[in-house]
């Protein structure tokens, strides 16, 4: 049984994944991504708590919840990436590794997607690898969590 939980958080409109705009975001649904992320996490000894909300404050609450319930966070903040000082502050406030993830290559898209409020406070940023990015981000997080646990075990 994995004894390390990580949160995978998804922001606004990602509930539409696979159902709209397949040319940009692919045809895999968020439910498919959840299954893949949980399987990948299990292989790495991580229990994945996978969530989606269209509401900024709910995402803030979940980041706070992770302080006591998770060893790290993968977050696709959706469009809040480009607007949310609240998410910046929440990530900064939790002493947890946070990986920022985007399905699309935001730098190959509109200029308003080139700035992120999360990147300066994230442990790392992954974008442009489609929904496989969730597995890649979990691998990166697993490595950071293992290193943290080895240097300061509970
Ligand atoms: O590439 C990403 O993962 C994004 O975080 C997705 C956000 C976008 O605002 C960011 O700039 C980049 C949008 C999520 C909306 O997802 C949809 C999925 C399918 C159909 C419509 C929207």
Descriptive keywords:
binds ligand CA2; Rossmann fold; single chain; five-stranded parallel beta sheet; 18% strand; 5 strands; 154 residues; alpha/beta; 5 helices
What's the layout of helices and strands?
Blueprint (H helix, E strand, L loop, with lengths): L3 E7 L11 H4 L4 H14 L2 E7 L3 H14 L3 E4 L8 H9 L4 E5 L21 E4 L5 H19 L3
Parallel strand pairs: 1-2, 1-3, 3-4, 4-5
Helix pairs in contact: 2-5, 3-4
Bound molecules: ligand CA2.
The site of ligand CA2 has 16 residues, from loops.
Span between termini: 18 Å
Give me the secondary-structure category: alpha/beta
What is the strand arrangement across the widest sheet?
2-1-3-4-5
Order of helices and strands: EHHEHEHEEH
CATH level-four homologous superfamily name: Dehydroquinase, class II
| Biggest pleated sheet | 5 strands, parallel
For the CA atoms, what is the radius of gyration?
Answer: 15 Å
**Proportion in β-strands:** 15-25%
Q: How many separate structural domains?
A: 1
Mean pLDDT: 95
Reading off the top of the CATH hierarchy, the class is best stated as: Alpha Beta
CATH architecture grouping? 3-Layer(aba) Sandwich
- Helical content stands at 25-40%
């Amino acid at each position: 049984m994995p004894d390390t939980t990580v949160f995978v958080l998804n922001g606004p409109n990602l509930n539409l994944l696979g159902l709209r705009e397949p040319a940009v975001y692919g045809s895999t649904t968020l439910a498919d991504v959840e299954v893949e992320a949980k399987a990948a996490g299990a292989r790495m000894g991580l229990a994945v708590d996978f969530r989606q909300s269209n509401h900024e404050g709910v995402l803030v609450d979940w980041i706070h919840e992770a302080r006591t319930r998770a060893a790290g966070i993968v977050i696709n903040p959706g469009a809040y990436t480009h607007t949310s000082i609240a998410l910046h502050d929440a990530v900064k406030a939790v002493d947890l590794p946070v990986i920022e993830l985007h399905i699309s290559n935001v730098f190959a898209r509109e200029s308003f997607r080139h700035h992120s409020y999360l990147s300066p406070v994230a442990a790392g940023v992954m974008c442009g690898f489609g929904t496989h990015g969730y597995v890649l981000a979990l691998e990166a997080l697993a490595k950071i969590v293992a290193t943290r646990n080895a240097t300061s075990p509970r």
